[in-house]
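Morning!

This is the sequence you dropped in the shared folder:
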Amino acid sequence: MFQNLLSKNRKKELTVEYALRVLNMTLFFFILGIGVGVIALFPSYIHVKGEIEQKEREYSDRQTEVEANKKLSEELEYHQYMTYVLKDMLEQKKFTNIFKEVTDLRPERVTIIGFSYNRKENRMTLEGVAKTRDLVAPFARTLEESEYFELVPIPISDLAKNTDLPFTLDMQMAKE
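The structure's back. Tokens below.
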């Protein structure tokens, strides 16, 4: 076979030099690979960054919409509350008008002692005292002819006495 004519020191130097060259080439290709990888990933980085910015803008827009919807929701709650209050005030005004009508239609010698109003059943109960029995029936008929009442029955048991007659009228309110 072949015989090596190099000295041991020279062989050692060449081996070290060869190892350094291999290391340099490995390092060169490693750095080149990293560089190529960075260059290859750069468009993806730009694309992802653009998508993140777009999503942040969409999120910001949604936040603005949510805040606007929250304001609308608060306004809606306020208007619902005001509707409830105004409806209640209308009911109170209506009841005030009804009671004024009852007192205006009341004959002179009839005294109203008390009343109650059942909004659920749409009924009003009126308690009073009439000087004579003859005043109760016409008062009930006059109330029944009013726009506020549909039915005003007169309990026969209330007509037992002739004078200072206590009576109770359980009246059905007219539908609106």
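Headline: The first strand starts at residue 110 and ends at 118.

More detail when I'm at my desk.
O.
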